[in-house]
Design brief:
The structure is a single chain. The protein is an alpha/beta fold. It has three domains: 92 residues, Diphthamide synthesis DPH1/DPH2 domain 1 (Rossmann fold); 105 residues, Diphthamide synthesis DPH1/DPH2 domain 2 (Rossmann fold); 110 residues, Diphthamide synthesis DPH1/DPH2 domain 3 (Rossmann fold, 3-Layer(aba) Sandwich). It is 34% helix and 19% strand. The strands form three sheets. Strands 6-5-7-8-9 form a five-stranded mixed beta sheet, sandwiched between helices. The chain has a four-stranded parallel beta sheet with strand order 2-1-3-4. A four-stranded parallel beta sheet has the order 11-10-12-13. Helix 7 links the parallel strand 7 and strand 8. Helix 8 packs parallel to helix 11. The longest helix is centred in the last third of the chain and has 18 residues. Bound molecules: iron/sulfur cluster. The site of iron/sulfur cluster has 10 residues, from loops.
């Protein structure tokens, strides 16, 4: 049985174990080509299944209201792990494990890490099972390797949660992310304060991402937001993307004499803001939107940590002026 068939068989088994008869499935974009195989497997298992073709970005992104309206008794979120979102209906989070071999990239490129005595290892949920072999390899080359445990699974990081990295931060000289694509490493590398490397399992190479472009965009957004008199506070309807209270942000701005309005949407995209007159935006939802898409917004877009930095500056300037 190959990796895909194995995952599908396990998924069907997990749903059966929950006794579900009518399910609503969400899968990440990378698995869409398997959508019909998954539906066929549930047909064979006599489980009625609805497959959502809306994008699913994480365990934060539950279409539970839609599942409820279709009278489903189970929401199935494939490819992500539970991080405690309040669900309206019973939800199964199914981790889709991806088989990959980290050794060729390590053999070829481990010298890029040779200057570090102690390395923190992190990954996305689908590749966590590979971390022990990466740890063993690095140890065989004389480096200490640490897999931290924060509020997620051991070694697991998300763009909005790097607690596994922070758990070992004091003990390591650098971090190595093991996985594929630029999606996860981008947000994570900007949130840790140590040299950050990526072991890309698809390309079989270790690289050190260059964050210069993103850092420049961040400084520019902060500089422009300093002059802003009006702010749109952006809130997503996705149930797991409520990281801060938008009213606290609005009230803080108003105390400084600024105008602020709160707008909600499912996915935060620049086109929805075309008619909105505001000098700057504060994104309270997925922080990756700001990192990856900041350049597409017509006005400066800040994440809550950047907004907090801005407020510290503006509030201390206001105190001095009094
Ligand atoms: S990084 Fe964004 S998409 Fe991923 S889990 Fe966090 S909020 Fe969701």
């Amino acid at each position: 049985m190959n990796n895909v068939e194995g995952n599908i068989a396990e998924l069907v088994e997990a749903v059966r174990a929950r006794g579900a008869k009518r399910i609503f499935i969400q899968i990440p974009e990378g698995l869409l080509m398997r959508a019909q195989d998954i539906l066929d497997a549930f047909d064979s298992a006599n489980v009625k299944a609805f497959m959502s073709l809306e994008p699913c970005y994480g365990a934060c992104d539950l279409r539970d209201a839609e599942a409820e309206s279709l009278n489903c008794d189970l929401l199935v979120n494939v490819g992500h792990s539970d991080f405690g979102v309040n669900e309206r209906i019973p939800t199964l989070y199914f981790i889709w494990k991806v088989d990959a071999n980290a050794i060729p990239a390590l053999e070829k490129d481990w010298q890029k890490l040779a200057e570090y005595k102690s390395i923190g290892l992190v990954s996305s949920v689908n590749f966590l099972q590979i971390l022990p072999e990466v740890k063993a390899f690095l140890e065989s080359k004389g480096a200490a390797a640490h897999i931290g445990k924060g509020s997620l699974m051991e070694g697991q990081v998300l763009g909005c949660n790097v607690s596994s990295a922070l758990a070992v931060d004091a003990r390591v000289d650098a971090f190595l992310f093991v996985g594929s694509g630029h999606f996860h490493p981008l947000g994570i590398g900007l949130r840790v304060d140590k040299p950050f490397y990526v072991l890309d399992l698809e390309r079989a190479e270790i690289t050190k991402p260059d964050y210069t472009k993103f850092l420049k965009q961040r400084y520019l957004a902060l500089a422009l937001a300093r002059e802003a008199q009006s702010f749109a506070v952006l809130v997503s309807g996705k149930p797991g993307q409520h990281f801060v209270d938008p009213y606290t942000i609005k009230e803080r701005l108003e105390r400084l004499g600024k105008k602020a309005w709160i707008f909600t949407m499912d996915r935060i995209t620049p086109d929805k803001l075309l008619a909105i007159r505001a000098d700057a935006y504060v994104n309270t939802a997925c922080p990756r939107i700001t990192v990856e898409n900041r350049g597409e917004f017509r006005k400066p877009l800040l994440n809550p940590d950047e907004f907090a930095e801005l407020m510290r500056e503006l509030e201390s300037a206001a105190r001095v002026a009094v």
